[in-house]
Amino acid sequence: MIPFTDEELFEPVRNVIDKVRPSIALDGGNITLVAVRKGAVYVQLSGSCVGCASSGSTLKYGVERQLRIDIHPELSVINVPIGMENKIDEL
Which helix (DSSP H) or strand (DSSP E) does residue 23 occupy? Predict the structure, then answer.
């Protein structure tokens, strides 16, 4: 159980996203924080990340790993496909 509210997590999560963004940008991609809900961090990959076979690894071993190290070991990352920003409850 994560001992923080979604609101408490948002700013630290955004800081981690900002920290990993330059690495993603090196490959022509970008990452945007969409929401934090119940320990799940919803992000959207864009640029060259869209359709890239490595984007799942980037999320799991890059972004999620950094969130777990910096904030809490039970956080998870979910990619929000373009057009699904208002439907994250369906993911």
Answer: helix 6-25
pTM of the model: 0.91
- Token pair, residue 59, equals 């999320």
Q: Does residue 32 form part of some domain? A: yes
Phi, psi for residue 49 in degrees, rounded to 5? -70, -30
pLDDT averages per 10-residue partition of the chain, 91 residues: 93 96 92 95 91 83 94 95 88 81
Enumerate the β-bridge partners of residue 47. Answer: 29
| Number of domains making up the chain | 1
Residue 89 lies in a domain: no
pLDDT of residue 39: 92
CB 8 within 8 A of CB 19: no
The whole-angstrom separation of Cα 67 and Cα 65 is: 5
- Give the domain CATH number at 59: 3.30.300.130
